[in-house]
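Severity: low
Component: inverse-folding endpoint
Summary: output formatting inconsistent between runs
Steps to reproduce: submit the following structure tokens with default settings.
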């Protein structure tokens, strides 16, 4: 009987170890590729980085005042941002007076609310970038209430005939 009990305990330990490996560790080892909302937040941060590189001595970012070489470079870097709307004229701010300057038009549902039981329920959200250089997510209600005056589609900006860029 003791041998049967030892076999049962060993099998239980092996099963528990396999569950830990496949449920917890395997997803983190499969791919480092960003997907869904993480990719959108990355793109928002990258847009803000590109806009900050084009910054002059002014606290404003104004696409129309950029030299033609900078516009061309900026247009090329925006070629993969076809699902985003952005402001081409805004004032860089800090955390107290920031404003949304880029927003995804696509809603992501792989955003989870904090808490163990919420991990299994999708929580739709949109990726945004702020004038202080940070990025995050907003709810569908916040997106609906967002004033999109002054925003342009980055696909239309990137495919501008001046840059000779076409959609992939």
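Observed output (run 2 of 3):
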């Amino acid at each position: 009987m003791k041998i049967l009990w030892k076999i049962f305990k060993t099998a239980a330990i092996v099963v528990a170890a396999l569950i830990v490996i496949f449920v917890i560790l395997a997803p983190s080892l499969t791919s480092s590729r960003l997907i869904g909302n993480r990719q959108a937040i990355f793109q928002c941060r990258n847009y803000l980085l590109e806009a900050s590189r084009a910054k002059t001595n002014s606290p404003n970012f104004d696409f129309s005042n950029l030299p033609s070489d900078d516009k061309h470079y900026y247009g090329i870097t925006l070629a993969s941002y076809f699902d985003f709307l952005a402001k081409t004229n805004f004032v860089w701010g800090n955390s107290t007076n920031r404003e949304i300057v880029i927003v995804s038009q696509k809603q992501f549902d792989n955003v989870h609310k904090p808490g163990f039981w919420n991990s299994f329920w999708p929580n739709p959200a949109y990726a945004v970038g702020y004038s202080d250089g940070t990025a995050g997510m907003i709810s569908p209600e916040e997106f609906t209430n967002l004033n999109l005056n002054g925003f342009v589609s980055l696909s239309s900006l990137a495919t501008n005939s001046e840059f000779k860029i076409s959609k992939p």
